[in-house]
Amino acid sequence: MRKIRFLAEANLREVDLPLVASAACTIRGPEAKHAAQVLRLVSGVCVEIQFPDLQQTWHAQINSLSSSAIELTLLDLVITKDLPIVHLVCGLLRGPKNDYLIEKAVELGVTSISFFKGIRSQGEVSSDSRLPRFNRIAQAALKQSGGSLIPQIAIYDSLAAALKTLHPNSQPRLSLAQRQTLDSSPAEIRLFCSEYSRTMLVGETQRQVTEINRQINRFGSNQYNLEKFSNPADIKSTEIQSTGNDLLQTFIVIGPEGGLTAEEEAQGCEGFGYKQVLLGFKTLRAETAAVVACGTLLQILSEAMLDSNALSKV
Fold it and tell me: What pTM, to 2 d.p., does this model score?
């Protein structure tokens, strides 16, 4: 049976915080209209209520509803498995391709999506007009997939601007070992998709996860506090770069339709310590590459969570 879910956005709900069982909750706006006029729900039906700003999902029972409001009683908190933290950095695409990318990335469970205007990008950068639409698409995808975290979406004028925001302490033209001593704990993976690389994405990610495991076994998990291997709720939605060293975070860069220039690839690899990786031996469209890369990373990191008690609390 299909689960019925509703988004309880902060400005369209009435509920006392913190959320507790038996609490009354009222949801207004489009969700109420959809429940009454499209789904034609009745009192007594049990549904799931997603609170994206609180990163929680609750079972609830409908007490009454109309096209303007749904009156519910919260029953119990839905326990969900934490996902690995994956940040997608992608060149701005043309038109509906951005919409497709956001929808699929949110369904997969990425933590943030950063678009940038690449030198060869064919899409226009206008955050004022695009961000509201992008956020609506993300909300719909979150509702469909049953997730609890709406990714932060941002648009930057260049790849350099995006990377400087994500890694504010990185120093240019340093080796990976030097960079790690300055701003990055071993609990961070930075990957850069490039058709010129001969290192496969799967192998490099597994290698780096193994290295993190080795360092934890050598120095102890307390030094890096990696028991919080995958808790996106600990990330401030407005300050990705300030998460500290207690979370394993993975960053993946994908170029726009026209690809990345040599200068842009050098920016990521020399200036911010990214490792070039290859998705495969076929040339993929940018939106396809982004979905494949995120799905692959989430699968590898999820398996690491399940296989390693040192990296996660399952």
Answer: 0.76
